[in-house]
Amino acid sequence: MVKLMNIYENTVEVKKEEKVKGYVHSTESFGAVDGPGIRYVAFLQGCRMRCMYCHNPDTWNIGVGTEMTSEEILDDAERYRAFWGPQGGITLSGGESLVQIDFTLDIFKKAKERNISTCLDTAGNPFTWKEPFFSKFEELMRYTDISLVDIKEIDPIKHKKLTGVDNKNIFEMIQYMGENHDDMWIRHVLVPGKTDFDEDLEKLSDYIAQIPNDVVKKVEILPYHTLGVRKYHEMKIPYKLEGIEPPTAERVKNAEKILKTSNYNLYKNWRPKII
Ligand code: SF4
Questions:
Q1: What is the pLDDT along the chain (275 residues), one digit of tens a residue?
Q2: Which of 47, 153, 162, 224 has most ligand 1 atoms within 8 Å of CB, for mutation?
Q3: What is the pTM of this model?
Q4: Beta strands in the chain (DSSP E)
Q5: Cα(248)–Cα(119) distance, integer angstroms
Q6: Are 218 and 208 in contact (CB under 8 A)?
């Protein structure tokens, strides 16, 4: 509630504060793979990318899903606080968490007021230097403890074929985050014939190595899987990777070796920042 003094009539008006609402696809109480520690994960609705291997095509549509306020999400999340430990907290995922940046920002601001650790899962596509987005993103980073950044493919042509969008702005976002000392955990989904090329992995490795300020706390290879195919059939969307099998254990090891994943260990002692 906000109290406004009307100096001419000497009365006190009480106005109800507008609560920020957004669209949520689903939530998960005990996420163990969505950032450091055990985390409550809210999957926000909406994504403009169309990754061929996306296992959640039901999160793509924008402006649908369950309408929730930031308070509702945080109240629900706090029921699991006892399980979080020193690293855990909440993760906003998707879909693409930056599609609803006003909502994401409001949740993280209020989470930090409650001393909850915040993790942003993003593939970076909405990033732009243009306003009003950039100022909101800048502010969001102040309330974000760590970001899970999905790098789909370093080669711009292959990236466009795989996801339907360019990757230039995604790398601009990563560079900005490095220069701004924003912690991140990089993930790359390994798909045979689409993202598993030694020369691209080498380039990605070099790219990650030059990200400034030791902000890369972990680098992870996620082997492609086919668990989402059923959803495509149910939604009558053509599945473009029909017939492609998950990568072999050797190819996963090869990618981990090229990306030097074992060198990125800082996540082990990582702690959320105190604001
Ligand atoms: S960015 Fe994520 S949610 Fe969006 S299409 Fe790709 S995998 Fe799916």
A1: 444 444 444 445 545 568 999 999 999 999 999 999 999 999 999 999 999 999 999 999 999 999 999 999 999 999 999 999 999 999 999 999 999 999 999 999 999 999 999 999 999 999 999 999 999 999 999 999 999 999 999 999 999 999 999 999 999 999 999 999 999 999 999 999 999 999 999 999 999 999 999 999 999 999 999 988 999 999 999 999 999 999 999 999 999 999 999 999 999 999 998 87
A2: 47
A3: 0.93
A4: 2-6, 11-15, 21-31, 39-44, 66-69, 89-93, 117-122, 146-150, 184-190, 216-223
A5: 30
A6: no
161's tokens: 């074929």
Q: From CA 136, how far away is CA 246, in angstroms rounded?
A: 38
Architecture in CATH of 19-269 = Alpha-Beta Barrel (3.20)
Please count the other Cβ atoms lying within 10 Å of the Cβ belonging to residue 223: 16
Domain boundaries, the chain: 19-269
Q: How far is the CA of 252 from the centre of ligand 1 (A)?
A: 21
- The answer to whether 148 touches 183, Cβ cutoff 8 Å, is no
With the most atoms of ligand 1 within 8 angstroms of its CB, the residue from 25, 43, 55, 59 to mutate is 59
| Amino acid making up residue 11 | T
Kindly list the protein residues whose Cβ atom lies closer than 6 A to any atom of ligand 1. 47, 49-51, 54, 56, 59, 94-96, 123
Q: What are the residues whose beta carbons fall under 8 Å from the beta carbon of 56, sequence distance 6 or more?
A: 25, 43, 94, 95, 228, 231
Atom of ligand 1 nearest to the CA of 150: 1
Sign of the CA dihedral with 98 first, then 275, 183, and 227 last: negative
